[in-house]
Amino acid sequence: MTESTGPTRAGLLTFVWLWVSLPFAYGVYELVRQVVQLFTG
Amino acid sequence: MTVGFLSPSRIVAPHDWNRWLIPPAALSVHLAIGQVYAWSVFKPPLEETLGLSGTQSALPFQLGIVVLGLSAAFGGTFVERNGPRWAMFVSLVCFSSGFLVSALGVVTKQYWLVVLGYGGIGGVGLGIGYISPVSTLIKWFPDRPGMATGIAIMGFGGGALIASPWSSQMLESFGTSTGGIAMSFAMHGIVYALFMSLGVLLVRLPAEGWKPKGWQPDKATSGRMITNANVSANNAIRTPQFWFLWIVLCFNVTAGIGILEKASPMITDFFSNTEAPVTAAAAAGFVAMLSLTNMLGRFVWSSTSDIVGRKNIYRLYLGGGALLYLTILLIGDTSKMLFVVAALVILSFYGAGFATVPAYLKDLFGTYQVGAIHGRLLTAWSVAGVLGPLIVNAVADSQAAAGKSGPDLYTISLFIMIGLLVIGFLSNEMIRPVNSKFHEPGDGAGQVAERAERGAER
């Protein structure tokens, strides 16, 4: 049996990826902000 | 035997399940437990409020890392037997209740409760959570196991990026009195429980015989060091391949952690005798950039390993790492830019070493008990966690005592790191396919998924 081409569950997929990527983006944003601040004063 | 909601039989996916729903399940656990690397945020307020020394305030973190290694090593078989939902649930309960017990410890000024809660109970959550999604991801992405585990293990690196500013802001809001710290701990416990519950609810096992569209296992394994057979966790540790890989992981981590743990004083010392010494602020920026490449390396290099092969990518991590350390040694304090670039790439190899190893294990030992084997291999991490900082700190201290300064403080450490990476490189070269006497009886093409399913059911 191979991967089906049935329903893609787009809504659920979007929700769960946002669930994990939003906090991750916040962390990366804070890190980049810190790097920029430190090197630009 | 797991029953009901947590049982593996309850999470077998329907045939039309989208496999891209599995990485977020893994990430919801790894992004949470990665908080452990941001423990230092709590150190100053705990020291001030409870009158602790720096060594004492590090105890919850240290115990947490030790328990992580032990619970991953000894809990791996339970994870394979009871399935990923059970493992993620155990991780959620332990990690969150660890924070709640710590909150109680702070509010009652019983510091041992903080150590036991965060380090002991929370540490079990770290270890079980770390290995919980590995074999599931490999089963869903047999065509791209390096990328799949790279996403999850990148999450572990990313967890600290989220927790560090978030915990700081929470301490600012609640204050750094005992009540404020306790409230912050309790809030962490509640929010992480909520965040991780997505993984518990979402994780699924592929149905028996499922495979990605267009993927042919026989074609994927032909002519490469990827097995169709399966080796149990108990047999795996009897093979030389396991121990060669243990050395590879241990020395790759040792070489990276040596820089990571001492990055800020190292860059400051290195350029202290130049016309443009590195300021404390710039050194902190350097550390932040190391965190970023450590994290990105986990995804980028591990995904690349699906194309170039696991053995080749470790040749790059270990051989390339040795050459980069040699570059740092040769240029001394003549080029700040070259120093920074070399250190960033070394740290990307460090993170990638963690992320690629589950796929390497899958190639060598099959999917049957890859989670349990991975757990046992993580003891190499525990050893490296002690070895790396010990080498760099002890050598730098002795060189400073001998009156040396600048790059000379680190010359011997750099030689040692190069030596370790060369040994790791040679160990990688010694890795060959596992002797068939270690294979599970009746293994062969087409039986992998079936056995993996049965393994999850047992």
Give a structural overview.
The complex is a heterodimer of chains A (41) and B (458). Chain A is built from 1 helix and no strands. By secondary structure, chain A is mainly alpha-helical. The longest helix of chain A has 31 residues. The mean pLDDT of chain A is 81. Chain B has 458 residues and is an all-alpha fold. The longest helix of chain B is centred in the first third of the chain and has 54 residues. Classes of the chains: A mainly alpha (41), B mainly alpha (458). At the A-B interface, helix 1 of A face helix 1, helix 6, helix 7 and helix 12 of B.
* Quaternary structure classification: heterodimer
CATH superfamily of the largest domain in chain B: MFS general substrate transporter like domains
Structural class, from secondary structure content of chain B? mainly alpha
- Report the total helices of chain B: 18
Instruction: Compute the separation of the termini of chain A in Å.
Output: 58 Å
Low-confidence spans of chain B: pLDDT under 50, at least 5 residues? Answer: 445-458
Radius of gyration of chain A: 18 Å
As a percent range, the share of helical residues of chain A equals over 70%
CATH class of the largest domain in chain B: Mainly Alpha
Strand content of chain A: under 5%
Helix count, DSSP H or I runs of 4 or more residues of chain A:
1
CATH architecture of the largest domain in chain B: Up-down Bundle
Q: What number of domains of chain B?
A: 2
Give the overall shape of chain B: globular
Largest interface: A-B, 28 and 40 residues
Helix vs. strand class of chain A: mainly alpha
Strand content of chain B: under 5%
**CA-atom Rg of chain B in angstroms:** 22 Å
Unreliable stretches covering 5 or more consecutive residues of chain A: none
Total beta strand runs of chain A:
0
Topology:
The complex is a heterodimer of chains A (41) and B (458).
Chain A: H1 10-40
Chain B: H1 22-33, H2 43-50, H3 54-107, H4 111-131, H5 134-140, H6 145-174, H7 178-202, H8 217-221, H9 233-236, H10 240-261, H11 263-270, H12 280-308, H13 310-331, H14 336-365, H15 370-377, H16 379-401, H17 411-430, H18 448-457
